[in-house]
Each structure stands twice: as structure tokens, then as C-alpha cells.
Amino acid sequence: MKPEIISTFYQKYSKIALINLSVVALIGVIMRYKIGFDFPFFDQKHLQHAHSHFAFGGWVTWGSIFSSVII
Predict the structure, then answer these.
(1) Rounded distance, CA 7 to CA 47, Å?
(2) DSSP code for 7
(3) Which has the closest alpha carbon to 31: 49, 48, 8?
(4) What is the dihedral of CA 48, 16, 18, 30, to 10 degrees?
(5) Which of 27, 62, 69, 70 has the most CB atoms around its CB within 10 Å?
(6) Which residues make Cβ contacts (< 8 Å) with residue 27, sequence separation at least 6?
(7) Residue 48 neighbours by CB under 8 Å, 6+ apart
(8) Which of 21, 51, 47, 22 is nearest to 35 (CA)?
(9) Which residues contact 43 (CB under 8 A, 6 or more apart)?
(10) pLDDT in tens, 6-50
(11) Nearest CA to 61 among 2, 4, 20, 3?
């Protein structure tokens, strides 16, 4: 694969991975907030479920796609 294609690919999917990290971190902060304070808009079980699935989809999937293309 050409170096400029790899560079463009890396930049694109690095941004996606950072956006995924930001969303997962935000959900994690909301879950921590709910431990000590009442936050009626979200259910803890649903937040935890979304957090785990989004983290897995955001990191494992994109990491395996990225590594398979580079190798």
C-alpha cells in the first residue's frame, strides 16, 4: 500500500478512535456521577450496557481493522 494512503487512513481512523474514546469517557463520567447523585434521565444498567458495547465496538473493532490494513 502506498505511504500516502496509509497516512490518510491513519489520520481518518485515529480521529474516529478519539471520538469513540470521548463518548466512552463521557458515559463513564455520567455513570460515576450517578453513584453519588440523582440523575433521573438515565438508568444505571442501560448506561453500563451502552458503555461496554460502545467501548468494545470503538476500540477492538477499529483497532483490529487498523492493524489488519497496516500489516
Answers:
(1) 35
(2) H
(3) 48
(4) -30
(5) 27
(6) 47, 50, 51, 54
(7) 31
(8) 47
(9) none
(10) 677 777 877 887 888 888 888 888 888 888 888 788 788 888 888
(11) 20
Judged against a pLDDT cut of 80, whether residue 69 lies above it is answered with no
Residue written as cell 456521577? 33
63: number of CA atoms within 13 Å, CB side?
A: 9
Contact status, residue 37 vs residue 3, Cβ threshold 8 Å: no
Cell of 33: 456521577
- Please state, in angstroms and rounded to a whole number, the distance separating the CA atoms of residues 53 and 4: 32
